Amino acid sequence: VSSVPDVAVLGASGYAGALSAQLLWRHPSFELVAVTSRSDAGRRLDELHPRYRVPLVLEELDLDRHGQVDAAIVAYPHGAASATVKALREQRVRVVDLSADFRLRDIEVYERHYGGHAAPELLDDAVYGLTELHRAEVAGADIVANPGCFPTAAVLALAPLARAGLIADVVVDAKTGVSGAGRQATEITHFVSADENVNAYGLPVHRHVAEMDQELAALGSPVAATFVPHLVPLDQGELVSCYVTPARETSAEEVRALFGEAYADEPFVELAERPPGVREVRDTNLCRLSTHADPRTGKVMAFAAIDNLWKGTASQAVQNLNLMFGRPEGEGIT
Amino acid sequence: VSSVPDVAVLGASGYAGALSAQLLWRHPSFELVAVTSRSDAGRRLDELHPRYRVPLVLEELDLDRHGQVDAAIVAYPHGAASATVKALREQRVRVVDLSADFRLRDIEVYERHYGGHAAPELLDDAVYGLTELHRAEVAGADIVANPGCFPTAAVLALAPLARAGLIADVVVDAKTGVSGAGRQATEITHFVSADENVNAYGLPVHRHVAEMDQELAALGSPVAATFVPHLVPLDQGELVSCYVTPARETSAEEVRALFGEAYADEPFVELAERPPGVREVRDTNLCRLSTHADPRTGKVMAFAAIDNLWKGTASQAVQNLNLMFGRPEGEGIT
Amino acid sequence: VSSVPDVAVLGASGYAGALSAQLLWRHPSFELVAVTSRSDAGRRLDELHPRYRVPLVLEELDLDRHGQVDAAIVAYPHGAASATVKALREQRVRVVDLSADFRLRDIEVYERHYGGHAAPELLDDAVYGLTELHRAEVAGADIVANPGCFPTAAVLALAPLARAGLIADVVVDAKTGVSGAGRQATEITHFVSADENVNAYGLPVHRHVAEMDQELAALGSPVAATFVPHLVPLDQGELVSCYVTPARETSAEEVRALFGEAYADEPFVELAERPPGVREVRDTNLCRLSTHADPRTGKVMAFAAIDNLWKGTASQAVQNLNLMFGRPEGEGIT
Amino acid sequence: VSSVPDVAVLGASGYAGALSAQLLWRHPSFELVAVTSRSDAGRRLDELHPRYRVPLVLEELDLDRHGQVDAAIVAYPHGAASATVKALREQRVRVVDLSADFRLRDIEVYERHYGGHAAPELLDDAVYGLTELHRAEVAGADIVANPGCFPTAAVLALAPLARAGLIADVVVDAKTGVSGAGRQATEITHFVSADENVNAYGLPVHRHVAEMDQELAALGSPVAATFVPHLVPLDQGELVSCYVTPARETSAEEVRALFGEAYADEPFVELAERPPGVREVRDTNLCRLSTHADPRTGKVMAFAAIDNLWKGTASQAVQNLNLMFGRPEGEGIT
Question: Around C218, how many Cα atoms within 13 Å sit in the side-chain half-sphere?
C-alpha cells in the first residue's frame, strides 16, 4: 500500500490549474497521476505551458478513472465546478475546489452573484480554505473551497482588525496582474489593451465582495465592504489596499500590535514596515503586509501583496491539501 | 512689435519641463526663446529627450537675459521655485509655476508639508491653475500655481459632488506611471524595481492631499481626504479612484446628472460610461471620468484618468498660459 | 465643387485601419466620409479604439455607396484585398492598399508566399509605396501598394548600400511590438504570453523577405536576404538590425557619407550617431537610422527604428495619399 | 569536521551576487557564511533584495576573516576582481569569479577590451566555466571564470556547429532584459528610458565577443563573430539569435542531428522545435535552443534562450561550484 496519495488536477489548462499541476508534480508527498482539460485534451501540459515542466498529456475527464484518485484540485469556472465536485465526492475523492461554488455559506448570496448551484446539499461539508483562519477545519475537510485571490489578500489584511471589532467601514481597492483575468484571449487580455494601461473593472459590485463580507462578519466585524479591482500591466501579482474607518479611535501602535499577535507564528504572512510591492512575493505562497494610520483622518490602512496565482490560488490549494493529508503545511510550496 | 509673446521654460531637463518646451516649441502663438537647466546646461534638449524635438541648447539660468521674456514656465522642485518666481515677477515676467510653492493659500499648511518659502508675500497674487475650476482668475493672473497631477485628477473627479455638498468622507486611491517619479535615476525608478511591481508610497500622508482638501473645501465640502498614491509599471498615465461616503442618500442617476451639468461644455473633460483606462488619454490634455454608485453600501465612486505629464502637468500649464495671453484654451495642446 | 477629396477606410477596426482613419479624420485636406468593418459593423470607432477620436460608426462595405469616394485606404488581410481593390478601381477610386496583394511585381513570388490573387492584371498599375524611394511614381499612381512594416525599415536602412552595389549578403534581425501581430486576441497576443518574453517567429522564411529582395535588387544589389522577426514586449515600435557583408572593403566614413547623401533632404529619415531606440519615433512618421562598421569583421551594420503602425503602415499610407492628391507630403502626419 | 564547505559571496549587493547568495543560502551542501558589499555594508541583504530571502547583513570585505572560507563567488566589476581573487587564492580559497578577469586565455586580448590585470600569472590556473563544455576541468579547478551571459547562450547555440567545422561566418544578435545592465540606477536603466523601447548598444564591438571567438576557435571554428546586444523592456531573460554562414552545404536535418548528439545527455540544455521564448526559462538554469535552416540562403540559424541572471550568471556559478566540490551538478539550482 502506497503512503503517497494519488492526485489529479481537473481543468489543468488554465493558469491556476497548470500551476497546481506543476506544484503537485514536484511535490514529495503527492503523486500527480492525471491532468484533465476539455479544451486542450491531447496536448502535453508542458507544451501548453512551457514554464511549467509537467510532461503529462491532458485528458478528457473520465470519472470512472479519475474518480479513483485520493484527492483532486478542481480548477473549473464558477458554476461549472459543483456538479463535478459532487460526482467526485460520491467516489470519496477529497477535493480542493478553486471556484466560488463552495465558498459562500448562504446559498441565496451565492445564487445572486453566480446563478444556479448543482449541489447545495454539500455546502455544509465545505470549509473555506483561507488557511491561516481555518487551519483546523481544513485538516479535517473533504471539500475545501479555496478562496478567491482578492478575498485571500483582503481578509488577511483585515482579519486582526475585524477580530478586534475595529472595522466600522472599509474600502478595498485592489490591483491585479493580467493573469488574474485568465488564459482566455480577449480584447481585455490582449497585450496592446493592457500594456501602459490601468483601469477599474467589475463595477459597481464585484462578486468577490461576498466572501469578504462573510469572513469579516464571522471574525466579528459585520460590514458591507466596498471593493473595486483594477487591472495593471503586469503578469502575476496582486496588491490590496484597505482603507478602514475604525469603530473607535486607535493608533498605529495598537494596530501594529494586533497584527503582530495575529501573525507572529504564521509562516506565510510577513509584516513589513514599508508598503509591500508585489515583486517581493512573486512565485511564493507569501502574503506581505504593512499597516499604517493617518492621524489627520483617523483612518487605518493595510496593504497586502500576494501572487494571485500562488497564495491567491494554486499554492494555497496545495497548502490546504497538505493539511488535509497530514503533511507539513509548507511542503512543496516553499 | 511682435504680437507673439516670448516664453522660456526654466528647468527643462526634467520630464515636465521638457514636455512644456515641446508644446511651446510647436505652439502657433508663443515663441520659445530659451530653455534652462542647471544639471544639463550645454546639452541640446532633443539629445536629452529625443522624443521631444526641441533643437535648443539648455542654458544656465541668467535672470538678466531670461528675465526679458513675457512669460515663463518654471519646472523646479518644490521649495526651489519660489525665489526664482519672485525674481521673475520683479522683472514683470508672467509665470506658470509647476511646483507646489504657490498652490496652498495657507502658508502654515505649506510649511508643514514643504518647509520654508522664499516669497510668501506673493501667495495672494497666485491663482490655483486647475483650469476648469478657476478659468476666469487664471486669465488675469500673473502667477499661476499649476496643480499637482494627483489633485488635478482627484478634484476634477470630485468637484461636482463637493459643490453639491455631498462629500462626507472620501478615500482617493491613485495609480501613477513611473514618469510621475521624475527623471532622477534611483532605486525606485530602476526598470527592474518598477517592472512587474505595484506598491503604495508616501504613507501615511502624501503632501498632495493638502491641495485636495483646500479645493474641496472651497467648493463646499470641507473634508480631510484620505489619499494614497501607488506606483504601477507604466510610463505615462494616472488613474485616480475616489470612494465617497455621501453626506446624504443619493443615486447613480443624481450623480450622473451632477457631472453632466458640471462638464457639459468642458472641452477637456470626458464623461465615460465604463471606467476609463489611462491608455485612452495618453499624450492628451483630457481627463476622462466615470461615476458609479454601489447600492449595497451607498458609496459613490468616481474614476478619473489623465496623462500625468500632460493634463497632470505640462499641457495644463500651456492651457493656463493660453488663457493668460488671451489665446484659445486648447491651442497647441489638441 | 469641393476641392477636398472624400476618402474612406475599409477595414477600419484593426490597428492599422483605425489609425489611418484617425489621421484622415483630423487631416486638413481630406474628408473622411466612411469607415467600414465586417466584424464590428455598427460600433462606433471611438468606442472600439478610445485612443483614436473618430466618432464615425463602422459600416458594412457597400460598394455602391463607398465606391463614390475619391480615394480609399484598404486595410484588409493579405489575399482578401485584391478583389475589393479591383472593384474600387472599376469605380475609379484611387487606392492605397495596406496588404501585400500589390507589393510584389512577380506574381509567382506572390503566390508562393500568399496563395491566389484576384486581380493580377492590376499589378502593373500598382506602385510600391515606400515613399522615399518611389516618390514620383506614387504621385501618379492609382494603386499604391503600401509596404510591409519590416521592409519599410529594412529597405530604408539598406537602400544607400544597395544603390552603391555594396551588399554581398545581409542578415536582417527585426524586433517588433505586439501591435504588429494585429488586433486578434490569440495565445500569442495575450498579455501573459508576450510580457517578459522575447522570441523569434515566422521561421524559417518570413514572407516579408520577398519585398526586401525585390527592392534591394531594383536598387542594384540582387541578394537573398536572411530575415527573422522577433516579438518584444512593447506596444508600438519596430527596430530592424541589418548586418551587411559588403561586396568590397568599405569604412564607417564611406558608409556615413552614402547615407548622408541619400537622406539629406528627406523630412522623415533621421540619421543618428547612436543606435536609435523605438521610443524616439513613437507616434511619428519618422525612420531613425544609425550606421556602424566593425573593423574586426568588415561587416557594415545599420539600425532603423520606426513606429510599425505609423511609418510602418498608416502614416506612410497618408504620406502616399498626400502625394497622390498633390498635397504636401507631411500634411496631417507631422 | 564538517563536510559542508563554508562559502562567501563577495559583492553581493548587485543582482548577480544577490542571486548567488540566495541560491547558496538554500543549498543543501554549502553553508553561506558571509556576504560582502562595499556600497551597502551594514544593510541586510533581504532588505536590499526582498525577493531573495537571505537574512544576512552585508559586511565590508575582511580578508582575514573572509579568507577562511572554502570557496567564494566573486561578483565584482571587470578589472576589480583579479586582485581579490589573487588574495583569496593565497589563502587557498577556491573561487568562481563572475567577472571577465579570468575568462580570456590571451592577456593581450583581455587588456585590449578591459585594461590592466592584477594577476595575469593566475590565468593558467583558471578554467572557463561554461559547464557543458568544460565539465571535467571545472571539477578540478581552483579558479573558475564564469562566462559572460551572452557567450553562455551564444556558445551553447553554436558549439555543435563549431565542433563540426561548420561556421564560416556568424552574426550573433542578442536581446537582453534590463537586469543585464546591472543594479546601478542610470539614465539607461530608468524605467521611462527602457519601457516601450528597444535599442542596440555596445557598438561597434562589444567586448563579450572575445569570449565567443576564443571558445568557437577552441571548438574548431576559428571565426571573428559579429555580435550586437540589444536592450529590451523586460526584467530577466536573454535571447541570442545566431545566423551562421556554413562552411559547406548542410541541411536542417544534419543540424538537428548535430545538436541532438551534442546535448542528448545535458540536463540543462533543451532542444525545442519552435523558437524558444525567454519566459520559458525564467528563474531556471536552462538553456532552450532551436535550430533552423533557410533553404533560400543556405544560412543556418540557432536561437538560444536563457535567464541572464541564472544560467547567464548565478546559477551557472553554483553549477560550477557543485562540480568543484563533488556535488551533483544540479543541486540547489533545479
Answer: 14
Amino acid at C148: G
Closest CA to D329 of D268, D262, D260: D268
Query: Is residue A240 within 8 Å of A211, Cβ to Cβ?
Result: no
Relative orientation angle of helices C252-263 and C149-163, to the nearest 10 degrees:
110
Instruction: Determine whether the interchain pair A235/C194 forms a contact, defined as Cβ–Cβ distance below 8 Å.
Output: no
CA angle A78, A83, A85 (to 5 degrees): 85
Q: How far is A177 from chain C (nearest CA, A)?
A: 9
Chains that touch B (3 or more CB pairs under 8 A): A, C, D
CB contact under 8 A, A235 and C185: no
Query: What is the structure's pLDDT at D2?
Result: 57
Nearest to B313 by CA among B184, B138, B153, B160: B153
Q: Chain A residues within 8 A (CB-CB) of chain D?
A: 50-51, 196, 277, 279-280, 282-283
Selected for mutation to probe chain C from B51, B235, B310 (highest C CB count within 10 Å) is B51
- The per-residue pLDDT for range A78-110, each reduced to its tens digit, is 999 999 999 999 999 999 999 999 999 999 999
A196 in Cβ contact with A233 (< 8 Å) = yes
Q: Find the Cα–Cα–Cα–Cα dihedral D38, D39, D41, D42, rounded to 10°.
A: 170
Is C189 within 8 Å of A187 when comparing Cβ atoms? no
The string of DSSP codes covering D172-231 is EEEEE-GGGG-S---TTTBHHHHTT--EE-S-S--TTHHHHHHHHHHHT-----EEEEEE
Q: From start to end of B139-202, where are the E strands?
A: 143-145, 167-176, 199-200
Give the DSSP letter of residue C311: I
Query: Which of A252, A266, A258 is CA-nearest to residue A297?
Result: A252
Q: Is D116 buried (19+), middle (13-18) or exposed (0-12) by CB count in 10 A?
A: exposed
Size of interface A-C (CB pairs under 8 A): 55
Give pLDDT tens digits for B196-238: 999 999 998 888 999 999 999 999 999 999 999 999 999 999 9
Q: Provide the 3-class DSSP secondary structure of residue B9.
A: strand
**Residues ≥6 apart with Cβ < 8 Å to A132:** A156, A159, A263, A266, A268, A269
pTM here is: 0.97
Name the strand (E) or helix (H) holding A306: strand A300-306
Q: Cell match 502657433: residue?
A: B28
Q: Is B238 helix (H, G, I), strand (E, B) or coil?
A: strand
Residues of chain B with pLDDT below 70 are 1-2
Residues of chain A found within 8 Å of residue D282, distances taken between Cβ atoms: 51
Chain D: nearest CA to C131, how far in angstroms?
Answer: 25
Tell me the C-alpha distance between A197 and B238, whole Å. 9
**Cβ atoms of C35 and C21 closer than 8 Å:** yes
Examine the pLDDT at A1 and tell me if it is beyond 60: no
Torsion angle defined by CA atoms of residues D79, D84, D87 and D93, in that order, rounded to the nearest 10 degrees = -120
Q: How far apart are CA D95 and CA D141, in angstroms?
A: 9
The helix (H) or strand (E) run that includes residue A301 is strand A300-306
Distance CA B10, CA B37 (A): 7
Q: Tell me which residues of D are annotated as active site.
A: 149
